[in-house]
């Protein structure tokens, strides 16, 4: 029987049903909703995987060691007002929830997760980035095919993604899609800070990813999906009346080099921590 580490090495991802209890999922959802309720938007930042907005957005670029809120592209009317309630318009919260909010800290730093990271070969795991993703009913946008190591690059490559389904994820509400074995194709590009300000993509390999071979990962609430940093994956739009809340946590190995030109930076006073 193939163990989890071998299966992860073969296909580049793992699907672990029932990893988190329903009560813990609900508690994290409730805390995220509290954070949104307390958010008074002075800066409106729209999350887009097409990067036009994100590339020149200081609010985004300075979010590595704080908690920031990002709106859905389809949340606004032409005059800039919200089409619906703020709580139904947020795309995600990022990127240091796991360090700055006690509820997210407890969820992110469990013995089970520490053991899993070790099992998958991480020597000194550091929790670098976290995101709470809402995938709102009807307006939850698609996320284009990408590799997490594009955004969280280390030498050698060590990025590891933990994606928790806090609600059932289906084809209708925008579940993940992954390319089995796609992590062996190598890194296609890097998202880096440009010398003159803002960011840019540095293309490393322009060979197209065979997206037609991606498979949907429909999973139940409480499932943990583990993603290799080089694995191409995406998610579809939410065309349903049901949300698809998820929590995403990204780790890197402290034994690797984290280049200065990565987009995500943290203040020297707040370096990434491990599970303790």
From TrEMBL:
Entry keywords, A to Z: Dioxygenase, Iron, Metal-binding, Oxidoreductase
PANTHER family, per database record: PHYTANOYL-COA DIOXYGENASE DOMAIN CONTAINING 1, PHYTANOYL-COA DIOXYGENASE DOMAIN-CONTAINING PROTEIN 1
Keyword NAD found: no
Pfam families named in the record: PhyH
Taxonomic source organism: Pyxidicoccus fallax
Protein name according to UniProt: Phytanoyl-CoA dioxygenase family protein
InterPro entries on file: Phytyl_CoA_dOase-like (IPR008775)
Keyword check for Iron: yes
GO molecular-function term, one example from the UniProt record: 2-oxoglutarate-dependent dioxygenase activity
